[in-house]
């Protein structure tokens, strides 16, 4: 999807987006260990080899909040207010819960977005990112990545 449609402050680039159920900075640690970056330029134009070419991965983390209207609380508060003249539950009329997402873009040596429809590597890069996502979600000890074959 276009990242800017996902969140306004992101650049207008076609990106790979997925929900991140892990704690803060987990994806940073994963990328840092996977590509052996030693905490240098993690997340910005990270070079990796893919089908004998060097591609560059950049990621952003973004939060989206879900806001829910709590009708039961509102009804209860109206009854309390009618009987006592005081509204006690106004702060609970809505509830918010945030979800974090990872937004990844991949570019080739010519700074062309590999996720655009017209890019010849689009489908293979998307599969690579799906595999990357799966590896991230299933790996708990990122030190293990140092002992696996690098992509």
Strand order, main sheet: write it out: 1-4-3-2
Strand content: 25-35%
Shape: elongated
Tally of DSSP β-strands: 4
Describe the largest sheet: 4 strands, antiparallel
Whole-number count of domains:
1
Class based on secondary structure composition and strand pairing: alpha+beta
The radius of gyration over CA amounts to: 21 Å
Give the integer mean of the pLDDT values: 80
Are there runs of 5+ residues with pLDDT below 50, and where? 1-7
Question: Assembly state here?
Answer: single chain
Q: How far apart, in Å, are the first and last alpha carbons? A: 24 Å
What's the SSE pattern?
HEHEEHEH
**Helical residues, percent:** 25-40%
Number of H- or I-type helical stretches: 4
Any overview of this molecule?
By secondary structure, this protein is an alpha+beta fold. It has one domain. The chain has helices at about 5, 25-35, 70-85, 120-140; strands at about 15-20, 45-50, 55-70, 95-105. The longest helix is centred in the C-terminal third of the chain and has 17 residues, at about 120-140.
Can you describe this structure in just a few lines?
The chain is α+β, with helices and mostly antiparallel strands and 151 residues long. The protein contains four helices and four strands; from the N terminus they run αβαββαβα.
Question: Helix and strand layout, with pairings?
Answer:
Blueprint: H1 3-6, E1 16-20, H2 26-34, E2 46-50, E3 53-69, H3 71-84, E4 94-107, H4 122-138
Antiparallel strand pairs: 1-4, 2-3, 3-4
Give keywords.
151 residues, four-stranded antiparallel β-sheet, 4 helices
